[in-house]
Write a structure and sequence with these properties.
The protein is α/β, with parallel strands linked by helices. The protein has helices at about 5-15, 25-30, 40-55, 70-75, 90-100, 115, 135-145, 175-185; strands at about 60-65, 80-85, 105-110, 125-130, 150-155, 190-200, 205-215. It binds 3,4-dihydroxybenzoic acid and magnesium ion (MG).
Length: about 220
């Protein structure tokens, strides 16, 4: 029997076609290097590319490069990308991915902890994609908001990861971080935000979600 998640992905694939271009090759490249299988799934990649077509950013910032799948989805337009990755192996694999995709000259991969790197960056960016350590999302957000231009977008992966913020286990840093992050999205007067539930990667704990927020043009 086909799992509901798999069936849904097949259904979407029948509607919109399989992932195109270099992406299947890049996913194989990550697999060969044994990176964890936590790249954005095709439907999230499609959403990122759609948001780029919609908002036409020039300068994109990403926290959590992994192997470069999301970065390639973000580079569908003509923007440039600054992407921060803590893991040296991940950053090296991502550099190869961007080169394979012919995008190396539009990407800067910065290796380090985003909490250290973000304060060194020169604003403004038009779009931020957050997909790194979930317990640190509140710190990334606080440091990144001043880097995003008014009217710019903030997109964050995994904000309902495995239902953790909904059913927090005491002492679970992911749950605490995501609850704080989601609360800030809802309450921060600088932001206008929505959270969309998503298909997750596991059948039982399948819940996940993605946040899309806009930095307000004028802050009350
Ligand atoms: C996991 C999934 C993600 O999309 C991510 O960014 C980090 C971790 C996970 O399944 O553990
Ligand atoms: Mg993710």
């Amino acid at each position: 029997m086909t799992e509901p998640l798999e069936a849904t992905r097949h259904y979407l694939q029948a509607l919109f076609g399989a992932e195109e271009g270099i992406l299947p090759t890049i996913r194989q490249h990550l697999k060969r290097h044994k990176l964890p299988d936590i790249s954005v799934p095709p439907e999230v990649g499609r959403l990122l590319s759609f948001l780029v077509r919609l908002c036409q950013p020039q300068h994109i910032l990403e926290v959590g490069t992994l192997g470069g799948v999301s970065g390639i989805c973000l580079l569908q337009g003509d923007a440039d990308l600054v992407t921060i990755e803590k893991g040296e192996l991940q950053a090296a694999v991502a550099e190869e991915s961007f080169a394979l995709a012919g995008l190396a000259d539009r990407v800067e991969v910065l290796v380090g902890d985003a909490r250290t790197v973000l304060p060194t960056l020169t604003p403004p960016f038009d779009l931020l994609f957050l997909d790194a350590e979930k317990s640190e999302y509140p710190d990334y957000l606080e440091l990144a908001i001043p880097l995003i231009r008014p009217g710019g977008l903030i997109v964050a992966d995994n904000v309902l990861r495995r239902g953790k913020p909904v059913y927090p286990t005491p002492g679970d840093a992911t749950a605490t971080g995501l609850r704080r992050f989601n609360r800030q999205l809802a309450d921060d007067p600088r932001l206008d935000a929505v959270i969309l539930p998503l298909l997750g990667d596991y059948s039982f704990n399948s819940i996940d979600g993605i946040a899309i927020a806009r930095v307000n043009l004028s802050v009350a």
